[in-house]
Amino acid sequence: MHYEGMIIRPPSEANSILLQVTLGCSHNKCTFCPTFREKRFNIKKDEIIFKDIEFARENCRRQDRLFICDGDAMIVPQKRLVPILKRIKERLPWVTRVGLYANTKGIGMKTDEQLCELKSLGVDIAYMGLESGDDTVLKDVCKGANAEKMIKMGRRVKAAGIKLSVTVLVGLGGRKRSMIHARETGRVLSAMDPDFVGALSLMLVPGTELNDQYEQGKFTLINPEEMLAELGGMIAATHLSDGLFHANHASNYLPIRARLPRDKEKTLEMISQALKGNIKLKPESMRAL
Is the Cα dihedral 173, 179, 180, 186 positive or negative? Predict the structure, then answer.
């Protein structure tokens, strides 16, 4: 496979065929994210993409899922994305699910009919980085969209029949806006009603604007207990019709996997017990991005 630079994929795509269609992220301005700083956004040539599909045909027959990399493949123009998806269906007929990252800009460039077309061609899940439902936090971290737009674009993905997996970032509001960030994120998640929520805990990375703000005393990183309390507030404010809420990423202090609403009270009680010291938290040395 022809890969350029670091390849990032969601944890749930660990065993998927990774097909790199774009380089980097078309937004690439979030103050907390170091992922694609070294890449200038571009769409790879069809010749390279189709050659990689042929490689997968010969070497990836045990993998029945495919993930389109890099940061926001949804932004690829429909006239280019459709032939790629058709080639995947034709040459990799055993693939049962295609996933991709999608930001609000990329989703917004697609009509409802085009989103439904992507679904018909095998796109079954889209991963969207909400990070926060608090407009102040979203503006501070240069996310490029407000809560209202996040809700609208998330709902459009779901209306097309594509499963929606949303990522949120515990601790992103700092100490000053911690519980506002928690409540507002729960509100937005409730309005979007995603199929999956993935909660990560903020880890500052040298070289990012947010880390610079931390070192300059302009941003306060909350401690593990505060992060756990924030996560509890977020879950309490989140009302899903039937969604999985994951907080079992390597960055988290307390692994959580809950189906909401069924497991909400049990999960909140577990967080309460952890805050009382009855359940041990993951040590700092064991956390990772």
Answer: positive
| CATH code of the domain covering residue 197 | 3.20.20.70
Residue 145 lies in a domain: yes
In a domain, 28, yes or no: yes
2-52 per-position pLDDT tens digit: 999 888 899 899 999 999 999 988 898 999 998 887 778 899 999 999 999
Contact 199, 245 (CB under 8 A): yes
Full residue range of the structural domain in which residue 84 is found: 11-283
pLDDT in tens, 161-204: 999 999 999 999 999 999 999 999 999 999 999 999 999 999 99
Residue 288 lies in a domain: no
Within-domain flag for 123:
yes
Q: With H, G, I as helix, E, B as strand and everything else as coil, classify residue 230.
A: helix
pTM greater than 0.90: yes
**β-bridge partners, 258:** 245
Length of the chain counted residue by residue = 289
Structurally, the chain folds into a number of domains equal to 1
- How many angstroms from the chain centroid is the CA of residue 107? 14
